[in-house]
Amino acid sequence: MKKPMKFYRNEYWLAFPLLVSGTLGALSSVVSGRFATSGLAMAVGLMIMTVGLCFWNRNRYRMSLQAIEQNLSENLQQKNDQAIKALQDAHRETVLQACADQAESDRKHIEPLLTDLAQRFSALSQRLGGQDQEQTVHGGLSVEAQIANLAQRIDALISHLDQQLTNGDKQEQSINGLDSLCQKVLPIWSSQVEMARVHTEESITNLAERFDALSKRLDAAVIASQNAVGGDNASNGGIVELLQDSQAELETITKALGASLEEKDKLLRSIEDLSGFTEQLSKMAWEVSSIASQTNLLALNAAVQAARAGDSGRGFSVVADEVRKLSRSSGDVGRKITETIESVNDAIEDTLKISRKFATQDKQTLSNAEQIIASVLNRFNKAASGLSDSEELLRTENNAINYEISDVFVALQFQDRVNQILMLVGDDLNKLEQHLNKLKNEQAEQGAAPRSVNVEQWLEELAMTYTMEEQLAAHEGAKTEINTHQTNITFF
Amino acid sequence: MAKTILFVEDSTSVRTVMKSTLTREGYEVIAACDGQDALSKLDGTKIHLIISDVNMPNMDGLTFVKEARQLRAYKFTPIIMLTTETQEEKMNEGKAAGVKAWIVKPFQPAHLLAAVSQLIQA
Questions:
Q1: How many domains does chain A have?
Q2: Which of A198, A310, A434, B74 is the 20 to 30 Å CA partner of B40?
Q3: What's the pLDDT band for A483 if we cut at 50, 70, 90?
Q4: Could you say which of A376, A404, A432 is where a domain stops?
């Protein structure tokens, strides 16, 4: 088997039939040469043989591969099975051993416990006046016989039994202790709950008042700022109106100043007109002077004529002399007038100069004043618009804060809920205390009367007192979530 | 003219908060701390709306509402109950007594104001 396997592993085996057919061909050529057979028939025969050989080889190869594969897998499977079996056996043995050990140790552990338990049962049943006869009987039996029966009871009973056995004779007193403890502690709890309730109420009321005051002050601030900026719709105008008024008033002042400047201009023009009159005056003075000089000339001619006339003209020469004196003095007057006019002219000129200077200064002052007023008003306007902006900001802030405060008010209402919950708990504590007192009194009157509290009924009664869903939910042990933002309104 | 609201509530904090909220909205508010106190304030004064808690000492809200309905001046005054109470039967009791709206605490002041203005207009 091994030899063909090695051979078949590569592709050379395909040459094997060719080799065989080649050898046969050579042989047949020899044979055909000897026996004179047709070469063609021989070739055909050879081809058939070659093909046959080829198929035979392939089949044989396939079959041998399959055989090898089968053989191998069988071998492997067998070995595997053996190994697994061996492992399983070993494991089972260990597990069995471990289980046995565990069982043994458990048994050793349980045996004394059960014995002890049986003894306790017996002692207890004796103490309880033979109520647990069954257990007592079991206590007398062997440990093995009890296992099935007791195993079911162990878990439930052991803690109970332990407790009862440990307390033993003190059973009566311990319940009495609980009674008096309850009677003492319940009023304390109750007063603590009440105190917590009162504290919460006081501080939350205080908080509510503060928030209210806060909200009111905020409102007042907003209104004040609004009034400062825009006025309060009554007699008092806001800063904007004040600015407008001031602007108007300042404008009237500048207008008045402008008007007075115009008046001054008119005055200047009148003065300028005056200088025109002085020219006429100086012309008239000049005419007076020329008349005087002509009169002088005339008087001189008259004096000459009077001298020619001799004695008869003597009187006339006196007159001519006087006329000459008069003409001289009128010439003097004319000169004086001219001089005076000149000095008047100078004065007017000076006045005009000064007045013009003042006028220019006044105009400058006025335009400066206008500019200053404009810039001041501008600044005020800016300040006012800034104020108005901040007033707007204040208003939006106020709205936001009011919204927050309304949320706070919602939260503050929880005090009412907490109050009711705490009051209910306090009432229930009081009720329990009274119930215990009543039981104690009854016991004192009737001796060892049965003392019991109907827990179910108690809880039921408590549940009836609830007013809120979450109280009931908490009573039933559920976690409650409180929706603070949805108002539950039902209209009828 | 300002409308008058009688506000009956045993919790001081809620009373403070609501009194200020309603006053700010321009309502006249008469506050009472329980049903008995509230009844003593129903002396014929014109009241446009009553808002009352349910669970209160001395006299609870539903008893107060029933008593108030006996008085001629307040026979048709709209009433809003403002309470932590959610029990169906209490609500039905209120409805039978002529309560117009049942608001469960905690409430948004704005929502209460909306309900108030709705009922006071009607």
A1: 3
A2: A198
A3: low
A4: A404
B43 phi and psi angles, rounded to 5 deg: -105, 25
Structure tokens at A422: 């705490």
Looking at residues A360-388, what average pLDDT do you find? 88
Q: Minimal Cα distance from B56: which residue of A?
A: A420
pLDDT band at A148 (very low <50, low <70, confident <90, very high): very low
Here the tokens at position B37 are 């106190």
Across the interface, whether the CB atoms of B95 and A416 are under 8 A apart is answered: no
Residue B52: which of B72, B38, B67, B69 has the closest Cα?
A: B38
Domain housing A8: 2-99
From B20, which residue of chain A is nearest by alpha-carbon distance? Answer: A212
Condensed to tens digits (0 to 9), the pLDDT of residues A168-195 reads: 444 444 566 777 777 788 888 888 888 8
Quote the tokens at residue A248: 């108007």
DSSP 3-state of B80: strand
Q: In the 3-class helix/strand/coil scheme, how is A293-359 assigned residue by residue?
A: HHHHHHHHHHHHHHHHHHHHHHHHHHHHHHHHHHHHHHHHHHHHHHHHHHHHHHHHHHHHHHHHHHH
> Which residues, other chains included, contact A398 with Cβ-Cβ below 8 Å and sequence gap of 6+?
A218, A219, A221, A222
The kind and range of the H/E element at B29 are strand B28-32
Whether residue A465 sits in one domain with residue A371: no
With CA atoms as reference, the chain A residue closest to B118 would be A491
**pLDDT at res. B30:** 94
A109: Cα within 13 Å, side-chain hemisphere: 6
Could you say which of A352, A370, A404 is where a domain stops? A404
List b or e across A183-206, with b for residues whose CB sees 16 or more CB atoms inside 10 angstroms.
beebeebbeebbeebeebbeebbe
| pLDDT at A108 (0 to 100) | 64
Do A197 and A307 lie in a common domain?
no
Segment holding B28, helix H or strand E: strand B28-32
Mean pLDDT, residues B92-109 taken together: 88
Residue A490 falls within a domain, yes or no?
A: no
Instruction: Please indicate, yes or no, whether residues A428 and A296 belong to a single structural domain of this protein.
Output: no
Q: What is the ipTM of this complex?
A: 0.78
- Residues A253-257: what's their mean pLDDT? 88
CB contact under 8 A, A467 and B86: yes
All domains of chain B in start order, with CATH:
4-121 (3.40.50.2300)
What kind and span of H or E run contains B102? strand B101-104
CB contact under 8 A, A467 and B87: yes
Show residues of chain A in contact with B25, CB under 8 Å: none
Could you say which of B17, B108, B110 has the minimum Cβ distance to residue A208?
A: B17
Q: What is the pLDDT of residue A431?
A: 87
> Min CA distance, B55 vs chain A (Å)?
8
Q: What is the mean pLDDT of residues B73-86?
A: 89
- Nearest residue on chain A to B84, alpha-carbon basis: A468
Contacts of A355 (CB under 8 A, 6+ apart): A264, A267, A268, A271
User: pLDDT at residue A102 above 90?
Assistant: no
Closest CA–CA distance from residue B43 to any residue of chain A (Å): 27
| pLDDT cut 90: percent of chain A above it | 1
Strand pairing report for A488-491 and B101-104: antiparallel
Query: What are the φ and ψ backbone dihedral angles of A257, each rounded to 5 degrees?
Result: -60, -45
